Amino acid sequence: MATTSEGDAVERTRDDIEETLGFVPGFWELNDEDLVNEWPNFKRHAFEETAIPPKYKELIGLAIAANIKCPYCQHFHKQAAKMHGATDEELREIAFLSSWTARYSAIIHGQDYDLDTFEDEVGQMAEHLEAQMSADD
Q1: Which of the 8 DSSP states describes residue 28?
Q2: Which CATH superfamily is domain 52-137 in?
Q3: 84-102 tens-digit pLDDT
């Protein structure tokens, strides 16, 4: 049985969800302890300023959602990305980039390519590209 302070925390959390979203969506019907622990982290990353701008967070979320094939996540992150100003062109590009990472991962895994060799080669490419960028400045 929940103590009074735990009950107060649950009530404050539900009130905060309702204030933030307009109501408490059914998917937030978690057990009390999980609700109190999960909501602040979700709210911070979904609705507050963090190191990553909101539109970028939502485009990243959409790319991940496409790869894990979650229709709930795809819908949420696409709508949130649009709300934060994502254009149709950006949404088309993120759809391509979502497939790109997975495709190259499959290719490299299919080759059973050595990870240490790959890491060395990425370092060499980065050095070359950085040198080119410096020369262009």
Answers
A1: G
A2: AhpD-like (1.20.1290.10)
A3: 999 999 999 999 999 998 8
